[in-house]
Amino acid sequence: MKATLRHGLTLLLTMAMLAVSVSAHAERQVLDRVVAIVDDDVILQTELDARVNTIVGRLSAQGTGLPPRQLLEERVLEQLISESLQLQMADQMGMRISDNELNETLANIARSNGLSLEQFEEQLAEEGVTYQQAREQIRNEMLSGRVQQRRVGNRVRITDREVENYLQAQAGRGPDAEEYRLAYIFIQVDDPGNEDSVEQARAKAENLRQQIIDGRDFREVAVAESDAGNALEGGDMGWRTESQLPSLVAPVVPNMEVGMPSEVLENNSGFHLVTVMDKRGGEQQTVIQQHRVRHILIRPSQAVTETQAENRIRDIYQQLQDGANFAALARELSDDPVSGSDGGNLGWVSPGQMVPAFEQAMMEADVGEIYGPVRSQFGWHILQVEERRQQDVTAENRESQARQAIYQRKFETELQNWLREIRDEAFVEFKGDYADLNPASEENNAS
């Protein structure tokens, strides 16, 4: 879990603190030392050890083989560096997660797993994670997610032609009869313009595929070798319907046997392996529940802090509870200019059209209820479901699913590119046992 020393922390101060610790506890080894400097932040040995132990516990519980400890530490350290860079961006952008929002998120996580908060805390304890550690990790993940949406989401553009082509490609396959739980390995090409670099990555991917065929666990290989963002989760991509499969693997997944790796797949970013861990039946839903909903949005910005935005939305909520006119307040105060000009009206909304936090609130709200405040990636909302209906929206639903699938595929690609960019642009210096990871260390030694 994250425990950072921010803004103005110097290595001298850190070493002084460690010196006091050594003096007071000379009989034991001091572990709380700096292992990396990342721009204005540092990563401590205790942070690294805690994250490694958490991952080892999770993978062991899944029965996934583990790579050598040193390799795992290096990969986890890179993960912590990426998280640190994103959290520093969130801090610079003034992003905050309030305690109220964090509590609501934790309650939702517990509820989605069929647990009370007390049971959720007990389960965490069994996994060696305190409730406070879980709170901070989830807070950090929420902040990172918002930074990604802000910086990466605006890179993604979807055209009507792309949607049409996607739907045409799906035509003739019939309704989705199965869902697939996938795992994924990505081998990045260091220099796409260099033929030797490309062939090196191809050979590595082919070699890993053969190891998996010979019996090595796919998830173990993902943890040890994959360059994808989900490597330390064993490459798990979760459940996907056929319409949600990334375009690169869509032609091969439906014909794959469970547990077998695909052929090595290639695109502009590198080489890929995918496996189907499980399959299950499913039916395409053509009659769905729609909600006619309106909302008021207050968006944090450079001029409006997170706390100010939350206070403002809670004040609006109280005004509505006291009898204020919803449409009038939406026109006057909402930061959504399109719906605000129409009294907050969003029209009829189908499942999947709204971001998860808003959709969950919409599903929970009673018809006519003033519901909120709710925090999404766009800001703070108050919403009101005015009506619900069952509607046959086969064509509309297919188009919405197509747009989501295209967006997700493009977002994942752009996210990997962006993470690589911010890592390349950052100042990162490894310390102590990890100093030989510094790119210039060999040159320094040679000189």
From TrEMBL:
Region forming the signal peptide: 1-26
Organism: Marinobacter alkaliphilus
Chief place of localization: periplasm
Keywords: Chaperone, Isomerase, Periplasm, Repeat, Rotamase, Signal
GO MF entries: peptidyl-prolyl cis-trans isomerase activity
Catalysed reaction, written as an equation: [protein]-peptidylproline (omega=180) = [protein]-peptidylproline (omega=0)
EC number annotated for this UniProt entry: 5.2.1.8
Gene: surA
Keyword Chloroplast appears in the UniProt entry: no
Pfam families for the chain: Rotamase, Rotamase_3, SurA_N
Location(s) in or outside the cell: Periplasm
Domain notes: The PPIase activity resides only in the second parvulin domain. The N-terminal region and the C-terminal tail are necessary and sufficient for the chaperone activity of SurA. The PPIase activity is dispensable for SurA to function as a chaperone. The N-terminal region and the C-terminal tail are also required for porin recognition.
Chain ranges passing through the membrane: none
Taxonomic superkingdom: Bacteria
Protein name in UniProt: Chaperone SurA
